[in-house]
Amino acid sequence: MNQTTGNKEFAIGIISAGLSYILWGILPLFWKLVDDVPAGEILAHRIVWSLVFILIILAMLRKIPSFTLEVKALVRNRKRLIGISLASIFISINWGLYIWAVNADRIIEASLGYYINPLVSILLAVIVLKEKLSGLQTLSIILAGAGVLVLTFSFGTFPWVAIMLALSFAFYGLIKKMVQVGALIGLAIETLLITPFALLFLTYVHAKTDGGAFGGNLNVTLLLLLAGVVTAVPLLLFASGAKRIPLSMVGLLQYFAPTIKLIMGVYLFHEPFTGAHLVAFICIWVALGIYTFTLMRSWRVKRVVVPARSL
Question: Are 99 and 147 in contact (CB under 8 A)?
Fold first, then answer.
């Protein structure tokens, strides 16, 4: 690959990944449009319509045969099937809790969860994958823990929404790393596994409430249908960008989403942001700065070492 092509690919990667995180950041605006619908019902529609939309994309990309082969391979491999099933459960918990948090006016706490997520992922890698922490990475986790403790002692309640969002997404990422399924096909399989339960739930809701939210109001119906689009489009952009840029760059760009959420929570939806929140977020921001520094330093070392080996 020549330098011009390489620069073009890098630019496409930055734009694609950056745009994916921006879209994830403004996603609360979409869920606010359907905040009259119970979070469980929104989640069920999101699962069902995500599967429909992703299957359409796979068909357009002529990847249905690959999807079918991957499903057959998973069925034959019990461990991978259990893994991807657990991944579908964790991502469903994450989606559902996030929707609930947005519509319960807890966007700031949700943003805290996604700031903490990379540090929780490091901790899981140490516990489960037996990876070793550097001194700076240990410091970053201690600072993040201090931020959580500040909120806990200041308000007398544990920030469970933030922690559950961070844990569910970190476990999801860990399982995906272990199972190793492509982003788009992986999401298709995950939604396929959980869709029967979503359909059963929607059937129950529609029977109990004489139609539920879907179909009663045209605007709400269209928005629920679009839930699949707003789920899959950022993922497609992220998949396109992540394969073109270094991991350290992805690590930097990922803070776009929680930062946008935080700004919206404070200035658009006027959620309370106290001195305790500020101290906690400063702890998290410093921790993330240290973590990002270790990522970038690691990438620089690899850039130096790898060419030397090829001489």
Answer: no
The SS3 assignment for 169 reads helix
Nearest residue to 117 (alpha-carbon basis) of 96, 151, 80, 148 = 148
Structure tokens at 281: 């977020």
The CA-to-CA distance between both ends of the chain, in Å, stands at 18
What is the pTM for the complete model shown? Answer: 0.86
Question: Do 102 and 230 touch, CB atoms closer than 8 A?
Answer: no
Query: Quick check: 227 and 44 in contact, CB under 8 A?
Result: no
User: Can you say whether the dihedral through the CA atoms of 58, 64, 70, 75 is positive or negative?
Assistant: positive
CB 241 within 8 A of CB 63: no
**What pLDDT score does 305 carry?**
44
Residue 267: name the closest of 69, 28, 91, 71 by CA: 28
179-225 residue pLDDT tens = 877 778 888 899 999 999 999 999 988 888 765 666 667 888 899 99
Model pLDDT for residues 242-294, shown as the tens digit of each residue: 777 776 677 778 888 999 999 999 999 999 998 989 999 999 899 888 887 88
pLDDT tens sequence across 138-173: 888 888 889 888 888 887 788 899 999 999 988 988
- Rounded to 10°, the helix 183-208/39-60 angle is 140
Beta carbons of 113 and 173 less than 8 angstroms apart: no
Sequence-ordered list of residues with C-beta below 8 angstroms from that of 59, at least 6 positions apart, any chain: none
